[in-house]
Amino acid sequence: MLSTDKLFTYRPQYLNIAILLAFCLLISIPVSAQKKFTVSGNVKDAATGEILIGATITLNKTSTSSNNYGFYSLTAPEGNYILTVTYVGYAPAVYTVALTENKVVDVALNPKAELQQVVINAHTRNNDNVASPQMGVEKLDMSQINNVPVLLGERDILKTLSLLPGVKAASEGNTGFYVRGGASDQNLILLDEATVYNASHLFGFFSTFNSDAIKDVSLYKGGMPAQYGGRLSSVLDIKMDEGNNQNYVVQGGIGLISSRIKVEGPIVKDKGSFMISARRTYLDLFLRASSDSTVKGSQLYFYDINAKANYHFDDKNVLYLSGYFGKDVLGLKNTFGTNWGNSTGTLRFNHIFNSKLFSNTSLIYSNYNYDIQSYLPGNNFNAVSQITDLDFKEDLQYFISNSHTIKFGVDALHHNLAPGSITADGNSSFNDKTIERRYGLETAAYISDEWHASDKLSLLYGFRLSNMFLFGPGTFSTYDAAGNTVTSNTYNSGQIVKRYFNLEPRFSASYSLTSETSLKASYNRNTQNIHIISNSTSSTPTDLYVMSSNNIKPEIADQFSTGYFRNFNDNMFEFSTEVYYKWLQNQIDYKNGAQLILNQDVESQLVYGTGRAYGIEFFLKKKYGKFNGWLGYTLSRTERKFAAINNGDYYPATQDRTNDISAVGIYQFSKRWSFSSTFVYGTGNPVTYPNGKYEINGLTTFYYSQRNANREPANNRLDLGATLEGKPHKKYHSSWTFGIYNVYDHRNPYAITFRDSKTNPGTTEAVETSLFGRIPSVTWNFKF
Questions:
Q1: Distance of CA 703 to the CA centre of its chain
Q2: Residues 222 and 244 reside in one and the same domain
Q3: Which residues does the chain have with pLDDT short of 70?
Q4: Do 104 and 216 have their domain in common?
Q5: Are strands 457-471 and 36-45 parallel, antiparallel or unpaired?
């Protein structure tokens, strides 16, 4: 992290590192006079026109994968070749290619009529987990997500991710998640490249992602590629379906608490398509039927809409437009109301310059806002807050040779942050108040090279240069350690208040011991300039967003990891173990007794420190056959250190969980029946218990000294699920999904509070609140 006044001093050092890395990129590229040609193209689903990500393309013995936009490129000396394209769940395609010039071979794969086995990772090469230099990446197929039993039968991406090693659910039934010791706000969540700031519905019990509308899910928890930046712990990259450009299709489902529907079809057959998906809960309908007059007429529901369209002008130019809109409405009649929601929009243009150079240009909009109303006489008010982003990205991929693929690009992200305002009428006890808006600009440039140096050694290396600018207008204060104002200056619109410059190197390597075994290592640095200040364990609508400023420095994380990867039985089984250590700088927390909401001087309530996270992960997965699934175990520690907290000693962070176990099993009993189960166990979350209490005017007040010095009881749960496929029909298909959440009715703690004992007032008793016991669910799914 570099401030403006030190930028000149440190710039030569950073430029020297950048020049050295760029020189490594150049010297590793071989020069050859041999005449070579390139075969390139796009890989799609013949039945729907959807691009296929990660299809394997083989030219004789040389292989590559289609990129995130379905494009591939392979180069070979002049001659005759056999080009083979494979993708699990599809019939392979084989072509004879005479390379006497550069050639375009677009591939349309046909889905197999019937799959005899369930496949866990449906779009990765058989040994990609061993051969690829990328570490800490997990890819989920939607068919896998749909088979995992979850709360109330709602298919959920985020809850499925929490079953993977190194990923932990924030709390019981919650979609918030922690990755390798990082806080929930340290995860970058992207939906078609747009940032989703609050990825939860109903206070975290459901995620914002409707699985019907999702095509591809990738989670990077270590060794993040250079094109990603802005968060410390992970990147969750989610891509929406593009729509069927061959036929019109309607599908959906009706469950106990929600229903969903999806419509897709061609705009122009073979050239363009659309997809619209919507979902809504109807808990509010039950409230309307209540006989309780205080509940009747209350609101409790959410809805979301996903939409996407594309148009292929020709075989080199494609335009995409996608968007998401979701909202939660929670209100108790004549008492209060809370509304919050996300909206995103992405306009994307793909262009193929030639057989080796691919471009993706994006203009992205993202907005998150919440609105709280109070209707109580004398205390009526309306409080609002929002954060709005505009982002321009240019990403390019250059296939220099079969051994080298270079990615490079630029990114400019503008933030408009309204921390909060409150308005009230003349009869309210509240006064109108508005916290000043804050404006910032994050810019970045990156380059990386995936180099297959030999049959055994593969490297992925590069760097990202990032800049953060904080702009006026507004009044900006600096504070000392006690929170007292030291200086206060006013800036005009467009004036730079603070600037931070960072170099983020990224490096990963894989060394193959055999065709089925490899060793990997990675190092990466990440920075973060958007921070959440919250005293809850997971995302809530009122989380306070702040930017790096003259008080708040960019958070920095340096992570090193190494691992052993092994496949067995013709790649049917995958095993891996990864060890990681993460150093954290400029961590942020709040002081004891801090006032965070609607505080113009909220930065005076913060403390700054360091942290560390380290652990080991084990993962065993069976990919094929009638029975498959995985077993994951993580042993880890996550600690923070602040001078003003716990006497400056390291203490367990909120997301610290020593042991975390997850097991998933899926069994294809017959053509129509399949069964699934999940089991989870985790060490209880760190909590702060009172050390004493005192009484003032008959009111008991508890005294707390050591933060997070205690633990909640351990969490554990078993879920079961079953799916019955309907009898085959030519025009439609249906299925029933049944589930039981928390089969043996174990009451996991959601919150623990303290009070004076009613039978013995001199003593204190802990009151544990649990949200979910045994919960059955049933959903009818249809498609025609």
A1: 38
A2: no
A3: 1-34, 113-126, 143-144, 150-153, 172-175, 203-204, 287, 289-297, 428-430, 534-543, 592-598, 698, 761
A4: no
A5: unpaired
User: The CATH number of the domain where 64 resides is what?
Assistant: 2.60.40.1120
Sort strands 606-622 and 573-590 into parallel, antiparallel or unpaired. Answer: antiparallel
Strand order in the sheet with 79-86: 62-65, 56-59, 79-86, 93-99
Convert 661-683 into a string of H (helix), E (strand) and C (coil): EEEEEEEECCCCEEEEEEEEEEC
Phi, psi of 727, rounded to the nearest 5 degrees: -65, 140
- Residue 376 is assigned to a structural domain of this protein: yes
Contacts of 582 (CB under 8 A, 6+ apart): 180, 181, 182, 557, 558, 559, 560, 612, 613, 614
End-to-end CA distance of the chain: 55
- The answer as to whether 87 is a domain residue is yes
- Do residues 524 and 223 lie in contact, with contact meaning Cβ atoms separated by under 8 Å? yes
The torsion angles phi and psi of 155, rounded to 5 degrees, stand at: -60, 130
Q: Determine phi and psi for 548, rounding to 5 degrees.
A: -60, 140
497-532 pLDDT, tens per residue?
999 999 999 999 999 999 899 999 999 999 999 998
Query: Residue 101 is encoded by which pair of tokens?
Result: 């010039």
CA distance 220 to 176: 16
Of 218, 237, 256, which closes a domain? 237
Query: CA–CA separation, 78 vs 99, rounded Å?
Result: 5
What is the maximum alpha-carbon separation in the chain? Answer: 93
State which of 174, 202, 237 marks the end of a domain: 237
* Same domain, yes or no: 575 and 663: yes
Give pLDDT tens digits for 530-541.
998 765 444 455
Q: Where residue 352 sits, what CATH number does that domain have?
A: 2.40.170.20
Task: Output the CA–CA distances (angstroms, integers) from residue 680 to 117, 165, 427, 558, 717, in the order listed.
Answer: 25, 11, 52, 29, 5
Let me know: does 257 contact 152? Beta carbons within 8 Å. Answer: yes
φ and ψ at 708, to 5 degrees?
55, 35
Tell me how many degrees the CA angle 481-486-490 measures, rounded to the nearest 5.
130
CA distances from 652 to 170, 538, 709, 710 (A): 15, 16, 8, 9
